[in-house]
Amino acid sequence: MKVMKVATFIFLAVFIVSFVSCDRTQQALKPMDPPMIGLSGEITIGVVLPQTGYLGPSDAGPGALVMENGFNMALEEINASDLLGDATLKFIIEDDMSTVEGAITAFNKLIHQDEVPAILGVWTSSVAEQVFPIAQENSVVALSPVVIKAGLTDGDFLFRACNTTETLIPGGVKKTQASLGYQNVATIADSVDAFSRDSDAVFQKTLTDNGINILTRETFMTGDTDFTAQLTKIKAASPEAIFVSAQQKEIIEILKQARALDIPADVPFITLVLSIDEIEKAGDAAEGSITFTDWIATADTPGNQAFVEKYTAQYGNEPSVWAAQSYAAVHIFAKALLDAESIEPTDIATALAEIKDFDTLLGKFSFDANGDAIYDPVTLIVKNGKLQVFE
């Protein structure tokens, strides 16, 4: 009887274990709800830029309006195509009024009220320094096409579509010094603006590292309009080249006032990202100026000539580098959305970080491990009022 009972017990135990095991196997094999594949509906993205104030459109030029034009042109093209399948993009554009405070307010509204997964824009490095950390802390993607100061993308959600000062300046100095042979130079820089301070610091280091003598270092403050004192000192030092670190409005006035003071026309002003808008405003005073930048209208990169023609027809003037970078940034962002098949910020950030050798009008585009752009910069010179490749 004991044997029978034991055998019966073992049989029942094996049966129960087999049943439970079978049940668990069935649960494991049971198909889960299929993951959402593809995008659909209207995807709302934040945009922050200065539509008014010091950096907005004015008598000095279109300002950040060119960035808005580039954004909108890319948006229209993407929505008119089937690139995102059943999905379309929508921008909520916030005016930062050319102030850090305005940008902080705009970022907080877009993140906490509109609950956007990403924010495009930001015109200056000074603004990016303050608002990028807000995006990072809230796990929202921030992608700027134009902020150049090194070190702004310290975070998994932070990206830029332009080269930094540390990428643009060393190569540009090496190329121009080899061609022009300058050994004695002067510098003039905005001592307040974050981009200008960073640009000046990298210029100083690069020039020193290359054995180039800096005869005089002049500074001014953001918003200054009279540069006579600084330029007079520079003229007296007789430099062979003058390196400028400043925003658009100040660069225009520096070029004009320098030529009015008869600083020789064969002494080139060298700066970062001089645009066609500034050249047109500075007129003849811009002739011979050299810039280390990211893009030229005549490039044969994919889609570039079609972009230039369409932009010119739509807005009545040739696009600047700011417009080109902004246009490219939207297409880069759309690729990330497509690759992620998600509007979750973490998924978008991951997809952005994985972009490699993507064809854009800027050239083959990738992000490095820091979220900074990787593509070939260019050195340009103003000849007959136009930007041409520096040879």
List the helices and strands and how they pair.
Blueprint: H1 2-29, E1 40-49, H2 65-80, E2 86-95, H3 100-113, E3 118-121, H4 125-137, E4 141-144, E5 158-160, H5 165-180, E6 184-190, H6 194-209, E7 213-220, H7 228-237, E8 241-245, H8 248-260, E9 269-272, H9 276-282, E10 290-293, H10 304-315, H11 321-340, H12 345-353, E11 358-360, E12 363-367, E13 373-374, E14 378-383, E15 386-389
Parallel strand pairs: 1-2, 1-3, 3-4, 4-5, 6-7, 6-8, 8-9, 9-10
Antiparallel strand pairs: 10-14, 11-12, 12-13, 14-15
Tags for this model:
alpha/beta; 12 helices; disordered N terminus; globular; 15 strands; 391 residues; seven-stranded mixed beta sheet
Task: Describe the model.
It is a single chain. The chain is of the alpha/beta class. The chain contains 12 helices and 15 strands. It has helices at residues 2-29, 65-80, 100-113, 125-137, 165-180, 194-209, 228-237, 248-260, 276-282, 304-315, 321-340, 345-353, and strands spanning 40-49, 86-95, 118-121, 141-144, 158-160, 184-190, 213-220, 241-245, 269-272, 290-293, 358-360, 363-367, 373-374, 378-383, 386-389. The strands form 3 sheets. The protein has a 7-stranded mixed beta sheet, with helices on both faces. Strands 2-1-3-4-5 form a 5-stranded parallel beta sheet, with helices on both faces. A 3-stranded antiparallel beta sheet has the order 11-12-13, covered by helices on one side. A hairpin with a 2-residue loop joins strand 11 (358-360) and strand 12. It is globular. It starts with a helix and ends with a strand. Residues 1-36 have low confidence and may be disordered.
